[in-house]
Input
Amino acid sequence: MLDRPFKEKPNFEHLRAVLMRERTDGPVPLLELAADPEIMAEVTGIPFAADRARATIFSTVGSIASLDSLDADTAALAVALMELSLAYSRTVGLDYVTVIPLVPLVRTRAQLADTGLGRERALRSWQDEHRGLITNRDDFSAYRWPSLDQISLLPVDYTATKMPDGMKVMLMYMGIFEDLRQLMGFETLAYATADDPGLVDDVLEGLTQVAEYTVGLAAAHPATGAIFYADDMGFSSGPFLSPRFMRTHVMPRLKRIADACHAHGKPFILHSCGNVLPLMEDFIDMVGIDAKHSFEDKILPVEEWYARYRNRIAIVGGLDMDLLGRGSEAEVRARTRQILQACAPGGGYCMGTGNTAANYIKIDNYYAMIDETRTWNAEHGY
Amino acid sequence: MADLQKLHDAILSGDAKTAAAAAQEALGQKVPPIELVQHAMVPAMDEVGRRFECQDYFVPELLLSARAMKAALELLRPLLAASGAQPAGTVVIGTVQGDLHDIGKNLVAALLEGGGFEVIDLGADVAPEKFVETVQRTRANIVCLSALLTVTMLSMRTTIEGLKAAGLRDRVKVLVGGAPVTRQFADEIGADGYGENASVAVSLARTLTAPAAIG
Output
């Protein structure tokens, strides 16, 4: 149980300054890409049928052609999720609240499977990795891209009216490479990089236009504090596609999206899972990311990332998901302190999980991470 | 003499059409199918694996080579069966229960097949009982288990325990791999090997099925 919030009052300005490496003093902030509804429900004590919500969302996503076609149940669920998210940010004592824009992009229907091991019920959604909606030129011609006027920041507007002073919206956007894999299916995409690279380029360009517009619109919103751009690009052993392919086809487009954010003076945080070390120079120099998130001890412990890149970008999170899922509370506290000792004194670091506050981590371990960070801050006068 | 180099290079460059044509041409010249496998296809896939490990090749190149290898293998398969040629081993492979991720598993399956193994792919979200039942009714001597999540990898332990309970553990070697899996975890659950990537899995399978390794 979280006996009291991480901090009494939100202070997004401090979080922003840490992300932009403008200061080395002040408390180490907490920052997550997302928290699963089960975690938010447990933290807040607000009952929420997370499995039903996930099933509803994933039976709907993929068939929505426009926001007008959202049924009342799904709309009510979306509002309930926003309220839960707000309550979670308040209860934990975060400087931000995570919000997802409404982008009616038709995606491949995801599958659900019950991991059944981490918690009583732990459904997770899984992407079809074989065939997507666009497998050839005919599919591409038939695909219904959303018009830009269908994109809505209604969730930002809604949340903005309910945030406490000092809190800002952390706008989460699902990235173009991730959507490319969803739309084409990973195997189809892999073959197309050799068989029809022009098709890959065309799908990427469609996604980039949507992303560039949405991120620009969101970054311009006065309630938005930063953009958290989620785009997984690697396995544990290396990038999915060659750095050469990424440099030619993906990075210039990522730069357009980051520029749309930076045009409004907001930080651009990249979440990218896997061993993306071979892509880091391009992320930093070509794209211009301000911060990097998603780390696994198995690939490279977060302290090593921090040591390598601390002078160029901020580092976010990094408490290993395996430890949070299977370790003891004492082990989590020890590892949290170890990371803080390495990364906190130099600034440009936010504590958090290595990926997300996922439904399969132990809630007491999550609380231990928060409490140990709070203790660290108190010991340093914050 | 047939041009085995052409088949080798076609697989290496992921050119399925040329690979099939080169295999057909060699068969037309009466080259024994097993010779095509041993002297062109397996070395080509070994080189693909080597390039993947040193990050000269990435997943698309690996998939393209596997596709080219399969195009040639389709032509050889009936001839190999008729000649009584034995595979390097028989592998039962699958992503464990609760986990639907299978790109990595598919890559391992493709490389094992390219390495001369017979592969029985059970797909994703496979219950321990299904692994046990498949090992029971086949001549499998290797079981490969894959997982993406830190919680689903726990099914690997259950599967190994299932094999033990069915009295099959001494008959098969168990290899594990996937994003959250480590050598330490593999040791903890009593696996025989841990492959940090698809290429390593093939080397391990070869080592573990070498006569001295089979108990």
